[in-house]
Every structure is written in C-alpha cells, then in structure tokens.
Amino acid sequence: SAGFAHADCLAEMAARDEWMMVEGFGWLSRWIYCGTCHQEFVGAQRLEMVRRVWRHRRDTPGSIEKDQALTTLTSALLSVKEFAGAERLYEEAWRDVPDDDDHAYGPRISSEIMRAGRLTQAGRSRDALEILTRLRPRLALCHVVNRADFNTCMSAALANVGRVEEALPFASDAVDIARTCHGPQSESALDAMFVQAQLLSSVGRVEEAKSMLGHIVAARTRLLGHEHQSTRGTRDVLRRITAQTG
After folding, report:
1. Fewest CB within 10 A of the end CB: N or C in the chain?
2. 87-106 burial, b if ≥16 CB within 10 A, otherwise e?
3. For the chain, how far is it from start to end, CA to CA, in angstroms?
4. How far, in whole angstroms, is CA 127 from its chain's centroid?
5. Any idea what DSSP says for residue 228?
6. Would you give the distance in Å from CA 145 to the centre of its chain?
7. Rounded to an integer, what is the distance from CA 39 to the centroid of its chain?
8. Taking CA 144 as the corner, what is the angle to CA 63 and CA 100, rounded to the nearest 5 degrees?
9. What is the DSSP track for 124-137?
C-alpha cells in the first residue's frame, strides 16, 4: 500500500462510521483523523481522503456539509501550493450558485483567498494584499478554515513586500487556529509554526526561531520519521540558521 493505509478502506469506514468529533470539524473528523489513534492524516493520504469526502458530498445541493467538504479539500490543495487547482475546483462547484445564496458566502471568500495566494506565488504580492485587505472585515462570518488560510496568505504576502513585522501576527494567529482545530502536534500546526519560525529568523529573533524549529524537528521525527522529506527540510533550515548565527 506504498506506506499508507488503503484509501478505499478508509473512505468506506469514514462514510459508514461516526468515529469522533473534533472541535471545529464535526462530521468531517472521521475523514481527516484516524479513528484508532486519533492522529491527523497528513501528506498524500490526507489529500486523497479529502478528495474522496468531496466526491461523497458534492452532489448534495445547498448543504453546509458540501461547503465544509469543499473548504477542507481546497485547504489541503493550498497547503501544497496548488492554488490553480483549488481555484478551478471552486469555479466548477459554485459557478451556478447565485452570489446572494447563504451557502455561497464562505466559498466566495475562499475563492478570493486562493486568488490572492496564486498572485503571491506569481510575485504579485501587492495585488494579493489589495484583495486580502478588502476581505479582512468579512472574515468574522467565515469558517475557521477560511480564517486560517487568510492568515497564511496574508503573512506570506506581507513578508514578500518587506513588511515582515506586520506579517508576524498573522502567522501567529494561523498557528493558534491550527493548534485549536487540529492539535498542537498536528501537521497543520507544525506547518504554520514553520512559517512563523522563518519570519522570526528574518527579523533577528533567531533564538525563538531556533527553539521553534527544534520543536518541529522533534515532532516530525516522532510522527513522520527521521528521513521524511518534511523532517529533513525543517532540519536543514535549522542547520542553516544555526550556521549563520554561530
């Protein structure tokens, strides 16, 4: 099974059983957390599972569950920088839904966040900031996943235009949301911490960055293994920062 559980088996179990409820996710918990050890699915397995939950719910018109499934899948795509794929998914799913439909509010916000992320990735961070600044007052009504994605995109766009000090609070909020929703040792929380640590290093708060990166390396070694790509990447960044600062 290429090192992870059979997705067909997991999907069948998730569709059949109510394994557990995790704060912020409700029914979705059984699709994105293991029912035995309660750890979050990560990497390719997570992306495959959320693709399947979308297929399971996409033909349920006008439902909160459809909205949540779509948001979770696009968040997984964003986590691997698949901005164009996430945007295409939203266009396909919501192109026939009127803008004043209550169920379309969160997805419309997500679509704008994805567009901002794609612009940031393409080196157009100032254009992305215009979109994100316009969206910010509307986030209070959105799903927590929308707020996490917004904070991640905002911190990246601000950092890219040299406003790193302004980016740090958004990165910190993204960490807090990930810890609350997924758990302090989840891959989502560790990813958010990695971004925060790099920002801290860039503004001279090196010891804080090194401490955070050391925590991430230890957690990923325990969860993913010493030679996993994510573990090695974090370890390399920690070594580089340590070498630069002595």
Report:
1. C
2. bebbeebbeeeeeeeeebbb
3. 44
4. 22
5. -
6. 8
7. 16
8. 45
9. -HHHHHHHHHHHGG
Give the helix, strand, coil percentages of the chain, each rounded to 5: 75, 0, 25
Matching residue, tokens 């925590």:
215
Contact of 40 with 187, CB cutoff 8 Å:
yes
- Would you state the pLDDT for residue 139? 78
Return the pLDDT at 125: 93
Low-confidence ranges of the chain (pLDDT < 50): 1-4, 18-24
Spatial distance between the Cα atoms of 182 and 54, rounded to a whole number of angstroms = 19
Structure tokens at 102: 């209550």
Structure tokens at 30: 């059984």
- Determine the pLDDT at residue 69: 72
Reported pTM: 0.62
Which candidate, 187, 239, 229, places its Cα nearest to that of 209?
Answer: 239
